[in-house]
Amino acid sequence: MDQIHVIYGSTTGMTEAVADKIAKALDAQAFNIGAGDAAAFDAELLVLGSSTWGVGDLQDDWAAKLDEVKRNFASKKVAVFGLGDSIGFADSYCVAAETIANAAKAAGATLVGEILKIDDTNEADQTDGKIAAWVETIKA
Prior knowledge:
- This protein is about 35% helix and about 25% strand.
- By secondary structure, the chain is of the alpha/beta class.
- Strands 1, 2, 3, 4, 5, 6 and 7 form a seven-stranded mixed sheet that branches.
- Strand 5, helix 3 and strand 6 (about 110) form a beta-alpha-beta unit.
- Helix 1 (about 15-25) crosses helix 4 (about 125-140).
């Protein structure tokens, strides 16, 4: 069993890019939830990421798979990150990440750290710094 896997859903590629940065910083492998790879959940720590769509909706691949995969969260350590638009959708900013975190906790996972919230549209200059700081808390 690997130590860490990063599992993400990405429609436009922005969440994939952030997932890749997190995976690199954690020396982990990244998996797209849409690929349906069961090996993605075979790790001690699962780092789960999704963008928020509409007014609080999960990214399409997560929306299609969350009920199916949440059983894999039992007894796991889980960290969660999300992407969203903090200006245009302030009321639902990163709600999809919160939805995933709540599903993981309800399934018996232990949440590690705070949810990392990234606005790569309006605050792209802060993304790398936020990732670096968050990764340090996850490593601890």
